[in-house]
Design goal:
The chain contains five helices and two strands. With 86 residues, the chain is mainly alpha-helical. Strands 1-2 form a two-stranded parallel sheet. The termini are far apart.
């Protein structure tokens, strides 16, 4: 349904998925979590859905398990590469 809803929108120049295990996400944000954020089974299904969409599309998937600085550098690199003038 998400793809159907977006078919009328302009195509994104870049879509980046920060792939992180639900358990890691819980460890990084242990307090003030919404109900759906505490449901690890749901979070696992959502993660798999994003992985399938990324594989079917032209999305950039980055390892969100790493340190914040490393992830930020990869985001910057992906954006600079994809959006560089040609």
């Amino acid at each position: 349904w998400l793809c159907d809803m977006q078919k009328f929108l302009p195509r994104a120049a870049i879509t980046i998925v920060l792939d992180i295990a639900p358990v890691t996400a819980v460890q990084r944000k242990a307090v003030y979590r919404y109900r759906y954020e505490r449901d690890l089974a749901l979070q696992s299904r959502v993660r798999e859905s994003y992985r399938r969409q990324a594989a079917a599309g032209d999305w950039v998937v980055l390892d969100g398990e790493r340190a914040q600085g490393a992830i930020a550098a990869d985001v910057f690199s992906a954006v600079a590469t994809r959006l560089a003038p040609r």
